[in-house]
Amino acid sequence: MSRFTFTIAATDGKARTGSIAMERGTIRTPAFMPVGTAATVKAMKPESVRATGADIILANTYHLMLRPGAERVARLGGLHRFMKWDRPILTDSGGYQVMSLSELSKVTDDGVTFKSHLDGSRHWLTPERSIEVQRLLDSDIIMQFDELVRPDVSPEKQREAMDRSIAWAKRSRDEFDRGGEHAARAAIFGIQQGVLDEKLRKQSADALIDIGFDGYAVGGLAVGEGQEAMLGCLDFAPDQLPVDKPRYLMGVGKPDDLVEAVRRGIDMFDCVLPTRSGRTGQAFTLDGPINIRNARFAEDEAPLDPDCACPTCTTHSRAYVHHLVRSGEILGAMLMTEHNLGFYQSLMANMRDSIAAGRFEAFATDFLDRYRRKGA
């Protein structure tokens, strides 16, 4: 079997469904990757994450290189063995953390110097070191090291970050190819930058295609631009990337974001929202999100979402989960997270089925109308 094979089984408009075949398993697309930042999807056991329908998870290069350390994970047999997840793992490159912790970092063409948010220790992260860390973790899908900037920076800064990301893409690709046995069974994705500028996005995409990657990500979105601006960018950005490669929208998003992005040709997603929301009392339902902490749920015997078949919804009432969350019980976070991840995976499965059946647009319209009609 080829180390990385992307197959498109059906299309409906720009929406696509298919699969990515890798050594550690097949990833059904469109795919949502639960975020396991520090080698754990918070409030979930690995087998519970798999039971929701997840084929792949995401782990974070920046956080794992600081704690427990990539070399330590390698000595312990790699990330899959360390966390007992035997299916594919995608690792992000650390670029987002460089931006979000910008007050602790300094960017040059060579790389990034930053202070650890944990203890203030100084570290040096380059494209080569980012790829090395991901290789030590034994990641299945490696992301190039990139620089992203927020949409409110100057046009000069936007172009500078895009140009730097292109240069780092080539260095990331070269370092990945030096990976020997790991490179033979893993994959590397390039990351398109350019903020909301169509011309910059096109220049970035063309340069990445010239370098050549196994898949391509649309980066630099979901950083404060708002849904309307994000979707405006997605009206053109995916079309600038190869049709026969996976397209990954990084860090997105809300359920309606996912539907809108699939409508525009995106195949892969990750976001902390379903797990973070679960820990703070927000549950996603077909009728929009609800805040289970609200007093009106104190004696509500209905499930979180009457249309959901997850273990939380088939076993427990809103009243019970309301009690757990209001009481600060750990089980409340666990049940809410289990439901939210199940909801997201069910949404992805329904999108895959509707694309295969040639009725995606009808599904998307019905879902969005209902989801956006009300919420609490």
Write the layout of secondary structure elements.
Elements: E1 4-12, E2 15-22, E3 25-29, E4 31-34, H1 46-51, E5 57-60, H2 61-66, H3 70-75, H4 79-83, E6 89-92, H5 95-100, E7 105-107, E8 112-115, E9 122-125, H6 127-137, E10 141-143, H7 155-177, H8 181-185, E11 187-192, H9 198-211, E12 215-218, H10 227-234, E13 247-249, H11 255-263, E14 268-271, H12 273-280, E15 282-283, E16 290-291, H13 311-315, H14 318-327, H15 330-356, H16 360-373
Parallel strand pairs: 4-14, 5-6, 6-10, 10-11, 11-12, 12-13, 13-14
Antiparallel strand pairs: 1-2, 2-3, 7-8, 8-9, 15-16
Task: Summarize the entry for a quick read.
This protein has 376 residues and is of the alpha/beta class. The chain has helices spanning 46-51, 61-66, 70-75, 79-83, 95-100, 127-137, 155-177, 181-185, 198-211, 227-234, 255-263, 273-280, 311-315, 318-327, 330-356, 360-373, and strands at residues 4-12, 15-22, 25-29, 31-34, 57-60, 89-92, 105-107, 112-115, 122-125, 141-143, 187-192, 215-218, 247-249, 268-271, 282-283, 290-291.
